[in-house]
TrEMBL record:
GO terms for molecular function: deoxyribose-phosphate aldolase activity. This is deoxyribose-phosphate aldolase. One of its GO terms (cellular component) is cytoplasm. Gene3D superfamilies: Aldolase class I (3.20.20.70). The keyword Metal-binding does not apply. Keywords: Lyase, Schiff base.
Length: 113
């Protein structure tokens, strides 16, 4: 195995495949799950909106790749100021079965000058 091949395989295992589009559907998420499984190895995770976690979990299990993690985002893309809503969305994502949760924050709060 060449260094390039070894590096490529290692990179594949660190990648997330993401779909966070307004027009996402169950079918698009199922297709993403199928893309995450490759003949040379699986991606580390898929990143989807929380409402698609159950169908993704089912698909990953059925295709024999339950080790592919499910990442999601909350308070996204708006990153509004209502912390209670952001926490509720995060709790719901965890309840759905997310392995990883990224949370959008308001840009002024992210400015660390």
């Amino acid at each position: 195995m060449t260094d390039l091949t070894a590096s490529s395989l290692r990179a594949l295992k660190l990648m997330d495949l993401t779909t966070l589009n307004d027009d996402d559907t169950n079918e698009k998420v199922i297709a993403l799950c199928h893309q995450a499984k490759t003949p040379v190895g699986n991606t580390a995770a898929i990143c989807i909106y929380p409402r698609f976690i159950p169908i993704a979990r089912k698909t990953l299990k059925e295709q024999g790749t339950p080790d592919i993690r499910i990442a999601t985002v909350t308070n996204f893309p708006h990153g509004n100021d209502d912390i209670d809503i952001a926490l509720a969305e995060t709790r719901a994502a965890i309840a759905y079965g997310a392995d990883e949760v990224g949370r959008g924050i308001p840009v002024p709060r992210a400015d660390c000058r």
